[in-house]
């Protein structure tokens, strides 16, 4: 499994000849340095409905003729826009040709901005993605909550946790979350994209490592190979 960090909370995850993208936010993201037109994937996975996680979902799904995999409400919306969709919900899992997706709980809100105003985006969640025997946990946008310990029972190889504060848990709570999750490696996300969530991710990774965790700092477009 290879994880390419696109920026903010977006990753392209690949294994063998399959690729999926999680929470695509490229247009409007000043830190992203890839072109949406160049993205070739087999599925689009969404943790929740906010625009900094879904901004490019429809365009990518349509240009690749691939499904958007998300909660029921988000899929209802994108399905009405012409996308292929596969609706799931918290606690559910499904095996696709590229691997297995399981939606987990997250403590956050979810909505979609449309031409007709803001609509309900279902429950926010996290994603456990297993490809070729390796599991990546994308925590989504979340506060700290005790069931992260339960999610950690899934033998996670790599986890991505938000550290930006204001809209999600902050750096110190993210360290505790990483400890509870117990992944072999942890990547900080959801920081620096706009002023309210500016954080020192390198310092966070160093502190995580000092606490016995394997912190990974990735610049946008950099990759990490899961051994």
UniProtKB/TrEMBL annotation:
Belongs to the UPF0173 family. One of its GO terms (molecular function) is hydrolase activity. Keywords: Hydrolase. SMART domains: Lactamase_B. This is UPF0173 metal-dependent hydrolase BVG16_01790. Counteracts the endogenous Pycsar antiviral defense system. Phosphodiesterase that enables metal-dependent hydrolysis of host cyclic nucleotide Pycsar defense signals such as cCMP and cUMP. Residues 7-190 form the Metallo-beta-lactamase domain. It comes from Paenibacillus selenitireducens. NCBIfam families: PRK00685.1. The keyword Transferase does not apply. InterPro entries: Metallo-B-lactamas, RibonucZ/Hydroxyglut_hydro, UPF0173, UPF0173_UPF0282_UlaG_hydrolase. PANTHER family: UPF0173 METAL-DEPENDENT HYDROLASE MJ1163, UPF0173 METAL-DEPENDENT HYDROLASE MJ1163-RELATED. Pfam families: Lactamase_B_3. It catalyses: 3',5'-cyclic CMP + H2O = CMP + H(+); 3',5'-cyclic UMP + H2O = UMP + H(+).
């Amino acid at each position: 499994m290879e994880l390419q960090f696109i920026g903010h909370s977006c990753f392209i995850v690949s294994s063998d000849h399959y690729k999926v993208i999680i929470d695509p936010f490229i247009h409007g993201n000043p830190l992203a340095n890839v072109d949406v037109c160049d993205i070739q994937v087999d599925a689009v996975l969404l943790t929740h409905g906010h625009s900094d996680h879904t901004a490019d979902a429809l365009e990518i799904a349509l240009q690749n003729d691939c499904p958007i995999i998300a909660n029921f409400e988000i899929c209802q919306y994108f399905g009405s826009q012409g996308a292929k969709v596969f609706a799931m919900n918290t606690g559910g899992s499904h095996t696709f040709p590229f691997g297995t997706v399981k939606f987990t709980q997250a403590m956050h809100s979810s909505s979609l901005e449309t031409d007709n105003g803001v609509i309900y985006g279902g429950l926010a969640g996290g994603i456990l993605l297993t490809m070729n025997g390796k599991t990546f946990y994308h925590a989504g946008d979340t506060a700290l909550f005790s069931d992260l310990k339960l999610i950690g029972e899934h033998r996670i190889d790599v986890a991505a946790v938000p550290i930006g504060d204001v809209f999600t848990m902050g750096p110190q709570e993210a360290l505790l979350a990483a400890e509870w999750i117990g992944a072999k490696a942890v990547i900080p996300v959801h920081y620096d994209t706009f002023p309210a969530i500016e954080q020192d991710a390198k310092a966070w990774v160093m502190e995580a490592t000092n606490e016995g965790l394997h912190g990974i700092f990735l610049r946008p477009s950099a990759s990490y190979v899961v051994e």
